[in-house]
Amino acid sequence: MPRPSSREEVVAAAQDRFHRRGYHASGVKDITDAAGLPKGSFYNYFASKEDMAIETLRRYGQSRQLHRLGDQAVPPLQRVSEHFEFLRADVVNFGIGYGCMFGNFAIETSEHSEALRTFVREALGRWVGALAGALRDAQARGELPAGRDVDLLAAALVRAWQGALLHARVLGDPAPLDEFETGTLEPLLAKEKA
Amino acid sequence: MPRPSSREEVVAAAQDRFHRRGYHASGVKDITDAAGLPKGSFYNYFASKEDMAIETLRRYGQSRQLHRLGDQAVPPLQRVSEHFEFLRADVVNFGIGYGCMFGNFAIETSEHSEALRTFVREALGRWVGALAGALRDAQARGELPAGRDVDLLAAALVRAWQGALLHARVLGDPAPLDEFETGTLEPLLAKEKA
């Protein structure tokens, strides 16, 4: 019976490698080496590299703290701002050069694994949905115009964020994340003038 | 002396492979096989896989037709709309599952090759610059408010487009590209009401 902590070590090493180096550039042996375990032990925990990748994406999704977008104790547009501030801090802390794990997998694995593509598609859907929920709350409070399509707005914000992150990565500079705030988030959330 | 056409065959095969399968998933042998040439012939044309990738990115950049953004015979905001319509048609024609080659390389190779990262950074800079030029022309004609930061706006549009393309890829559906138009391009270009 393998120790539970060894599986954790493999998942933690995989998540770090996949996020920093990419899926194709990280072999199973790199990951088990990083976890200090023999390569053969990998198959005690996962049926395949793809299965392990799904587990790392699931954990990455949990770390996005989407539940905070539904926190009724916080005014809805404040939740939206805080969400992107949280993501910004997380990206800068982890390393501006490594991007969003969902975006990375979307680009690197969509043509290679239907299971990974499906997981990323659903994860992005949950993200857009959670953001749309906060925008819908804002609309109910009159902080956004009643006629505004909040699903379209939420999708626009998530996509613009991911594009900003891609540029931040290439530039090695978080400036595009600040420009997302002033150039996209603020103008798209501005109340239309009467 | 190698036939000039063989080099072209290698570059065309490389561009297709890199765009459809990614940089890491396309080996030199895959590429020379696709071009119908022996693997060893590759080094007649390129010093390295990285060098060949830069050539494919250079050609991809040319195919974006950025010069049309500066065409003074066309009203400037029409140039901007036509630019994104052109890109949309190109993406759909090539295959919605393959994304933007600059975005793909940004994510897949930034941590692996300083030369590729630099090329992509400069290519994205030229794209944002060409778009900002058209927006500046629009501003000069009073089609955008005088105080608007057109460099920030151009960057926001390119990044939002790349995020939309990422979602289109994961969904296998061009809908996010249409949503870019209604959810981002039109609202960000709308003249502020008085």
TrEMBL record, chains A, B:
The keyword Calcium does not apply. Residues 27-46 bind DNA. Residues 4-64 form the HTH tetR-type domain. It comes from the Bacteria. Keywords: DNA-binding, Transcription, Transcription regulation. Pfam families: TetR_C_13, TetR_N. This is TetR/AcrR family transcriptional regulator. It comes from Pseudonocardia eucalypti. The lineage of its organism: Bacteria, Bacillati, Actinomycetota, Actinomycetes, Pseudonocardiales.
